[in-house]
Amino acid sequence: MVSVTLADIQDARVRIADRVHRTPTFASETLSRRLRVPVVLKAENLQKTGSFKPRGATNAVRQLPQEARSRGVVTFSAGNHAQALAYAAAAEGVKCTVVMPASAVPSKVDACRAYGAEVVLHGTPREAMAHFQVLQQTRNLVPIHPFDHPHVIAGQGTVGLEIMEDVPDVSLVIVPIGGGGLISGIATALRGLDVPVRIVGVETTGSNAMRAALASGRPVMLDRIDSIADGLNAPSVTDRTLDIVRRYVDEVVEVTDAALIDAMRFAMERLKLVLEPAGAAGLAALLGGHAGRPTGRVAIVLSGGNVDLTRLKAWL
Fold first, then answer.
1. Is it the case that residue 2 has pLDDT exceeding 80?
2. Catalytic residue among 42, 53, 77, 227
3. Which residue has the higher pLDDT, 205 or 103?
4. Is 53 a known active-site residue?
5. Which CATH class is domain 6-51+151-315?
6. What fold does the segment set 54-148 form as a domain?
7. Cα–Cα–Cα angle for 156, 51, 311, rounded to 5 degrees
8. pTM (predicted TM-score)
9. Is 95 part of the annotated catalytic residue set?
10. What is the C-alpha separation between 187 and 201, in angstroms, rounded?
């Protein structure tokens, strides 16, 4: 299992600089007054394709040798990594196939196709993951796993570098967890920089693969996933992401779907930001008191804003 280092993340930042945004990190007086600590928001919902995912996808695609590029790439995703890989592959002239659950948000499916990807809709998230492996083998495609890939993790870790440059005195960083790629990259960056910061990951009660893995000491395939946060609905984490979280992350907490909806409403009304449920997970944890009682500056990673407007209307 290839490890990821601070140097890998620093190299990734140079490699992807012309393909992704350096997203803003801005203070929220509203949250700071409410929580009585300084709060900043890392707005990855304003990233290319609407989430943090192009960082890792671009870093992975740009390191493919010509032989691999000629074969094309494949992945599985509920939507954000699929869009990101489609975007990254199109920019490099590489054919892309994405396997998405049959329940994938239509706007995310449409976005993948708009970037030129072949979209294969297949079953549940767990079944989509299995079908991705079938297509990879039968079509001889190059797999770009959404989170269990060192180049993807290194790309996501560039979020951590930017947070530390913008907020060097941060004491708590809150990060959503699906399969664990984002928090693995951010935690590797922060620990590599040797800063005294507490790192908290956030899952939902209906999709808690990382907490299940931490409790079992190994990755666990969830029997059932029941959460509106499709961006966090990984059926399992992996040995790689579990190992990094176990070593570098202080705590993993859970929030309910109702808390996600409340956080999305708060973001729209008070912060003027549109978040998808997964993107609001860190905000939900802080507002609900699940991240403990912070005593210093807090940074929340808003991981994405790709929300279907029809569903948003129903939730709010």
1. no
2. 53
3. 205
4. yes
5. alpha beta
6. Rossmann fold (3.40.50)
7. 145
8. 0.96
9. no
10. 10
